[in-house]
Design a protein that fits this description.
16% of the residues lie in helices and 45% in strands. It is α+β, with helices and mostly antiparallel strands. The protein has a single domain, classed as Sandwich (Jelly Rolls).
Length: 171
């Protein structure tokens, strides 16, 4: 039993009921885009329930080939996020990853001359509900002459379907 002012404000039954139907979750998309080509990366939402994305963050490489491979600091990757359930583009055009994932540039271990440093990540706010059993697609183009890696973390709230919640609530 709660004592004091918090005991009057917190309704444990309501909090447990909410926790059984939704909770914080994240999905990670990792992909490598070949040199001078595009790649369609995807991450599955899964069948647990819908995924309400609130923020994204991530990192990407900035390499160019040549003797030797060099980290040139230029954002060679640009991408377009797509709702896989209905193939709906969520961006009007391809957006450079340095704008979406600012400041997500990762100094690559492929370039020994690039000093590895700590990056600060500022998540971009993007609110969108992805349906259960669908995919989040990310179509990325690479204008570098070297294959480049990127990762995007989608952070949000998992909203369980009524079928999944029925067994938890005991009702």
């Amino acid at each position: 039993m709660f004592v004091g002012i918090l005991g009057e404000k917190i309704n444990a039954e309501a909090v447990f009921s909410l926790q059984n139907s939704q909770y914080q979750d994240h999905l990670l998309l990792t992909d490598t885009v070949p040199a001078g080509q595009s790649s369609l990366g995807k991450v599955g939402v899964g069948n647990i329930g819908h995924f309400y994305c609130l923020r994204i963050t991530g990192h990407f490489e900035t390499l160019t080939a040549g003797p030797p491979i060099a980290d040139d600091g230029i954002s060679h990757l640009r991408g377009k996020m797509i709702d896989g359930a209905n193939q709906r583009p969520l961006f009007n055009d391809y957006v450079p990853l340095d704008i979406i994932l600012t400041p997500g540039r990762e100094k690559s271990p492929h370039d020994p001359a690039a000093a590895l440093g700590n990056n600060l990540f500022f998540p971009m706010s993007i609110e969108y509900l992805f349906t259960a059993n669908s995919d989040i697609l990310f179509d990325v183009k690479n204008d570098s002459d070297y294959e480049l890696d990127y990762e995007i973390l989608f952070w949000g709230i998992r909203v369980k379907s009524k079928v999944a919640v029925a067994g938890l609530s005991g009702r």
